[in-house]
Specification:
This protein is α/β, with parallel strands linked by helices and 483 residues long. It is built from 17 helices and 11 strands.
Length: 483
């Protein structure tokens, strides 16, 4: 058998004409998807293995046309999706996409730059620094986080990475860089960290990754609003010190995942500062609310923070991934994470005039994530973003009032912003069954948590296109699903 001719390398690529044609078709497809998504069952109905069973067992030997890829997207992928972009999605937290952010993501892929050093793409660094400085003002954060001060901001993939970087900077500050140089075995005292007992699990994970051990994380008791109790926190710090351990890090949560509880920043920050602890604020979801002045009370005491993060990829219409992380002392972060091999040396770095963001997080490489954030801010404007946050909080307030008016239900936690925690008056089992019935209907999707040991339903309202009628329909469905 003669071997088939090998195509020339240039013939293997997608031509510009083909890229244009399929690209336009793909944008049309996405626009249609976003217009129609609310009619699809929100929670995917597939069983484990269904998606893989639809795919061939081996990859194609030769090129397949775009139309076939998209047929398979419709046939295999779409039924296997839980539709996070549906306005009937009320589970977990919002993970918003929006037109401008999708375009920013596409442009970032199209430019394909690596922004690991200022020199490898100056615009990738400077647009990011500039937009994060804007955001300091937009959220009413203190000037210590501006790049023009000793601090500054960087985009991380997730809030999990931010808390890890905060922890590493804190570890090195507490051990005078001994841990980086010689390892924790050479640090005589056990380092101890503190957070709300409902703090996000990413902190426990970061303790493991940082080699500090999960058992060195003190989960501090909370009050009846699920906020950390500063008196208990102060007592734990004193006990650890007396026992010869080294308290070094505290994390406050603004908007806990379970119930949206707000830790008291000022009281916590004063204890942290007095005891020389690194004070990190995790505002992953709720930080977005600070766009509106009336929701900034949660920031009282934020100037005491060493670092702060929030996720535009949750409630600020920027598709995943985009977490913003600010530090008060960028040198502390850079000292903890910087390594400079010969092949990365360059004049700009040596001039000391530029930021090299590779020193501000774990990966070396980084893409141009700031584009999607910049596009979103430019599309909506500050006032547009504020209006949407207010709209979502008002919808949550309305939903909460319906729950309160119905004697069969109870609201079980305060509602600072856009999350309503509620339950059917009755057993945990009845509530679990209610949740299953709601989600199996495909008409809405809610998730749950446990508060004070009881099974609780969470109604999280913040989707890009959610309107009053979606929330009303969800409430009618919940009531009709009582059984
Ligand atoms: N912190 C809080 C308070 C959260 O709600 C979440 C996500 O649910 C996280 C951290 C983790 O977010 P990410 O997925 O960006 O790591």
């Amino acid at each position: 058998m003669p071997t088939p001719p090998v195509p020339s390398p240039s013939a293997l690529h997608m031509s510009s004409a083909e890229f244009r044609r399929t690209g336009h078709a793909l944008i049309d497809w996405i626009a249609r998807y976003l217009d129609d998504v609310e009619r699809l069952p929100v929670l995917s109905q597939v069983k484990p293995g269904d998606v893989r069973a639809g795919m061939p067992s081996s990859p194609p030997r030769t090129s397949e046309p775009f139309e076939q890829w998209m047929d398979d997207v419709e046939r295999i992928v779409v039924p296997g999706l839980t539709h996070w972009q549906s306005p009937n999605f009320f589970a977990y937290f919002p993970a918003n996409a929006s037109g401008p952010s999708i375009l920013g993501e596409l442009l970032s892929a199209g430019l394909g730059v690596q922004g690991m050093l200022w020199a490898t793409s100056p615009a990738c660094t400077e647009v990011e620094t500039h937009v994060l400085d804007w955001l300091v003002g937009m959220l009413g954060l203190p000037a210590q986080f501006l790049s023009t001060s000793a601090g500054g901001g960087v985009i991380q993939d997730t809030a999990s990475s931010s808390v890890l970087c905060a922890l590493l900077a804190a570890r090195e500050r507490a051990t005078n860089l001994r841990s980086n140089t010689h390892g924790l075995a050479k640090c005589p005292e056990r380092l101890v960290a503190y957070a709300n007992e409902h703090a996000h699990s990413s902190l426990a994970k970061a303790m493991k990754i940082a080699g500090l051990g999960e058992s060195a994380l003190r989960l501090v008791e909370t009050d009846d609003r699920h906020a950390l109790r500063p008196d208990v926190f102060a007592q734990l710090v004193a006990t650890d010190r007396d026992a010869g351990r080294l308290p070094f890090f505290a994390c406050a949560t603004l908007g806990s995942t379970s119930s949206n509880a707000m830790d008291p920043l000022r009281a916590m920050g004063e204890i942290a500062n007095t005891n020389n602890l690194w004070f990190h604020v995790d505002a992953a979801m709720s930080g977005t609310a600070a766009l509106c002045e009336e929701f900034r009370a949660m920031h009282d005491g934020v100037e005491l923070a060493d670092s702060y993060c929030f996720n535009p990829h949750k409630w600020m219409f920027v598709n995943f991934d985009c977490d913003v992380f600010w530090v008060r002392d960028r040198a502390a972060l850079i000292n903890a994470l910087s390594v400079l091999p010969e092949y990365l040396r360059n004049q700009a770095t040596e001039s000391g005039e530029v930021f090299d963001y590779r020193d501000w997080h774990v990966p070396l490489g980084r893409r141009f994530r700031a584009l999607k954030l910049w596009f979103v801010i430019r599309h909506y404007g500050v006032e547009g973003l504020q209006a949407l946050v207010r709209h979502h909080v008002a919808l949550a307030e309305q939903f909460e009032s319906w729950v309160r008016q119905d004697p069969a239900f109870e609201v079980v936690a305060p509602r600072p912003l856009n999350l309503v925690c509620f339950r059917l008056r009755g057993s945990d089992e009845a509530n679990e069954q209610l949740l299953q019935r709601i989600n199996a209907s495909g008409k809405a999707y809610l998730s749950h948590t446990k508060l004070h040991g009881r099974f609780v339903l969470r109604m999280s309202i913040g989707h890009t296109r959610v309107e009053a009628h979606h929330v009303r329909a969800a409430w009618d469905l919940i009531r009709a699903s009582r059984g």
